[in-house]
Amino acid sequence: MSTKTIEEKQYLVRFKADTKSHLTVLDHEICMTKCPDKICTIFCPAEVYKWEGLRMQVGYEGCHECGSCRIGCPYQNIKWEYPKGGHGIVFRLA
Amino acid sequence: MSEKFDVIVVGAGPAGTSCAYVCAKNGLKVLQIERGEYPGSKNVMGGVLYRKQMEEIIPEFWKEAPLERPVIEQRFWMMDKESSVSFGYKGLEWGKEPYNNFTVLRAPFDQWFANKGVEQGVLLINETVVLECLTENGKVVGVRTDRPDGDVFADVVVLADGVNSLLAKQLGYHKEFRPDEVALTVMEVVNLTKDKINDRFNLEDNQGCTIEIFGDSTKGNLGTAFIYTNKESINIGVGTTLSSMIKAKMKPYDLLDYLKNHPMVRPLIEGGESAEYLAHLIPEGGYHSVPKVAGNGVLLVGDAAQLVNAIHREGSNMAMASGKMAAETIIEAKSRGDFSEASLNQYREALYQSFIIKDLEKYKDAAHTFEHYPQYFKEYVPMMNRAASKFFTVDGTPKKEKQKEIMKSFTSGRGTIRILQDMYRAWKAVK
pTM of the prediction? Predict the structure, then answer.
């Protein structure tokens, strides 16, 4: 299969999601009022962040735990932790 | 788990396992903590593993480690939209002992390597996150894990927790990284038959090829793409500094698909089946971003210490070498019975006298230069392509005139002075 969309790419990956998110948007108001670009929705390699008009939807279950959102959020508005031990992404190959 | 160890190593990548392995081999009591389901399950790299630094830990590892192919050819492409200027080196001496480097898949490799540590006596605990370092009178004395009653103690804690090293940040050894200090890289493992790989890359069995691609592979942004041959798959990936990704408002997976569909690239992977998609950060801040690497009862190794030479795509080798140096320091500190910062600073000295920091220092201004002057990737790569096309197209123009035209096309675009400035600046950054 050649992958054309991020959804197709994400299907290739094994995730063992925790029930609790390891990513927290600290203040949704900041996304709403101060951040017109909502740049995390663009650079996140797993499309974890989706803007839903009023608040940021965080699909932590598909997170690659790369850390880009923590570093790249222009307002340091994302609290980033590791998922609980043994949870989160499980790379099988590379 | 309240027993005390000589060493706790946080993380089971190449840096952590090298350190744990050497410590255990020398009789120290080592606990290694890995947050993933197994070592390698959180780890990503393009795929080149260097023989030299690995061999210094496990001699003749190639006889048993799960490797893909020894690399016998390294190609470099300066790629434009529909063309590419390339150079490279192919040498059959790299295909036999002692080899130069190998392509590997990290999940199997890291598991194998960590298991070698276990054979030396390392106690490896998977599926466990280290939440913080425990300190007493300013000295790190252990770690708190996310297990019940999860405090464990040791004379030394080695932070091999990777590019995000939350622990080093907690200790105040570095601030949060800036988006221009890290590269966001995405890749796919694409399954392809051995025969197809051999045909398309001009290889025989057990010969590998790497291609590093500059220019249009990142749409002219600061970064590179790579294509590495495994036995029966290809790793294809692309990354730019996170700051470039942000500035250009690029989706990394769109950039990857742009690369996969590029007319220079597509024929190599045509018909392949994507098997995995992976994203990771690479610490590319270089010399200026290296944090404090030794403290009271604590050492930083590998990506956690930002030890990556982005220009030469070296990282896992620096991870291993730093892990080994840390282990040697700990062994001597143990014999002195002194785990203070002054004692552990021996590691810092070893690191700074080694190829690791020397190489990072050589390129200390490179990333900064190329980030601030985007013309190198955006303008010069297409310029080189146009020049090559003109020079090699036979159209009845005398060669001397062609050369003149090419020179003129260079200088008319940017102006002679600016070209000279650019050349001097680039030379200074990498000299």
Answer: 0.96
